[in-house]
Write a structure and sequence with these properties.
single chain, mainly beta, five-stranded antiparallel beta sheet, 28 strands, globular, disordered N terminus, Arylsulfotransferase family protein
């Protein structure tokens, strides 16, 4: 080999090394882009974990259903540690104490009615059930119910009309029963629309028998609507080609659980009472389990906005996931809610020129906001945190809050001061009619994300807690 050839090869190797260094720098720069850049909807943006500080974060797993129609359990580095082939709206953890000590059980959808549009309601949901860690169905309720799972009589445990029609929420109760939020299409006197897409709550026992039932339209005069608002609601027409009017669009339902308010003598907060959320009417309400009456509510009308904390609760719009913070967690007894600030109400309320979502912690007795999170608390523009629909917020044991900015598929954890210490963007895309103006689009939206403690999974389940810089440098 001549000296000239050797020099040419050396220059070629040098250029290749420089190109590789530039490529690596570009990739690292892409990974470190501010998350807000992802929400301006460029054609390409990072997915997976984008930020992680283990010393400041609460460390555990996160459970959610992706748009690939599967349910994923991820660790703090975004590694999928388990998957179920089913999805749900949402998947729900089963407390091992309510499953005979079994770890890793989850509530999911088991069957879909053919040809039914699933987005936004439960009309296509044929059956729901409990699955163990290995995906085996251990309980089922819905179409023909349980004949294949224990030989039970279908006449006692089939869902009304032969399909579960569960939507938005459900919960395994301490007594072993299951609380199910479902749809009911029927005629309701006083409505202009010939058919109403109503919301109904069922409490279903382990044999599939309905032991308690509550229907929203039976309690319209208890939600605080003005006469003008009630007239508008009753005259509402079906939207988006639907055959029935979805006048409340209830998107959350769970029991209150033990709390300091009831312990202090306030019967409205009895642990068995159920808290619900109506996205369409901007209402959060508590239902007395014994009487069925609405005994507490926020909305539909609110105080003017503004002022320092604590302050009266101002306008909620299309909120999701309201619940009382559980005993033992910071803020126990207060209500935490994801306030979408989308567009809803009778009449419709709009979020204004800078639409942005917020998470609120509310004293439910004083009805005052005692803590809130917006993107400004993370030194970002208001609109960099916004989900007009879906989404959730959960208080964590160390005082942080896990937030699902649903329509962007972004799940993140903030400190009480608003510092983002963990962030993840779902890489699980799928086809959806939601957000496509009648056409199918690709999306990674996440309806709800739930924090999962390490002791919920079977022993030996892997997990990783490497800081982001370590993760980035080893990929």
């Amino acid at each position: 080999m001549t000296a000239n050839t050797k020099r040419r090869l050396a220059r070629l190797r040098q250029r290749q090394q420089q190109a590789r260094r530039l490529q690596t720098c570009a990739l690292l720069a892409l990974c470190m882009l501010p998350v807000a850049a992802a929400f301006a909807a460029p054609s390409v943006f990072p997915t997976g974990v984008t930020r992680y500080e283990p010393q400041k974060a609460w460390n555990g797993y996160v459970l959610f259903s992706g748009q690939d129609k599967k349910t994923h359990l991820i660790d703090m580095n975004g590694n999928e540690v388990h998957q179920w082939a089913q999805e749900r709206f949402p998947p729900v953890l089963v407390d091992p104490a309510r499953a005979g000590g079994a770890r890793g059980r989850v509530l999911l959808q088991l069957a879909q009615l053919p040809g039914m549009q699933a987005a936004g309601n439960g009309l296509g949901n044929a059956a729901i059930g409990e699955l163990d860690w290995d995906g085996k169905v251990v309980w089922r309720w819905g179409a023909a119910a349980q004949t294949a799972y224990g030989g039970a009589d279908t006449s006692t445990n089939a869902a009304p009309g032969g399909a579960a029609k569960q939507h938005h929420d459900w919960e395994r109760l301490a007594n072993g029963n299951t609380l199910v939020l479902a749809n009911l299409v029927h005629d309701v006197k006083g409505f202009k629309a010939p058919r109403v897409l109503d919301d109904v709550l069922y409490e279903v026992d382990p044999q599939g028998k309905i032991v308690w039932r509550w229907t929203a339209s039976d309690h319209l005069d208890e939600f605080g609507f003005s006469k003008a608002a009630l007239d508008q609601l009753r005259n509402a027409a079906p939207r988006d080609g639907a055959k029935a009017v979805d006048y409340l669009h209830t998107n959350s339902a769970r029991v209150l659980g033990p709390n300091k308010w009831f312990d202090g003598g306030d019967a409205r907060f009895a642990p068995d009472n159920v808290i619900i959320s109506s996205r369409q009417a901007n209402i959060v309400a508590i239902i007395d389990k014994k009487t069925g009456k609405v005994v507490w509510r926020l909305g539909p009308d609110f105080a003017p906005a503004g002022g320092k904390l604590p302050r009266p609760v101002d306008q909620l719009i299309g909120q999701h996931d309201p619940h009382l913070i559980a005993p033992g967690l910071p803020g126990a007894g207060n209500l935490i809610v994801f306030d979408n600030q989308g567009e809803a109400g009778y009449p419709i309320v709009s979020p204004g020129i800078f639409p942005h979502s917020r998470v609120l912690e509310i004293d439910p007795v004083k009805k005052e906001i005692v803590w809130e999170y917006t993107a400004v608390d993370s030194k970002q523009t208001q609109w960099s945190f916004y989900s007009a629909f879906i989404s959730s917020a959960r208080r964590l044991p160390n005082g942080n809050t896990l937030i699902d900015e649903g329509m962007n598929g972004r799940v993140f954890q903030v400190t009480p001061q608003g510092e983002i210490v963990w962030e993840y963007v779902s890489p699980f895309y799928g086809d959806s009619a939601v957000g496509g103006s009648g056409r199918t689009v690709r999306t990674n939206w996440v309806y709800r994300a739930q924090p999962v403690p390490y002791d919920w999974v079977p022993a030996g389940t892997p997990r990783s807690e490497r800081p982001l810089d370590t993760v980035a440098s080893t990929r």
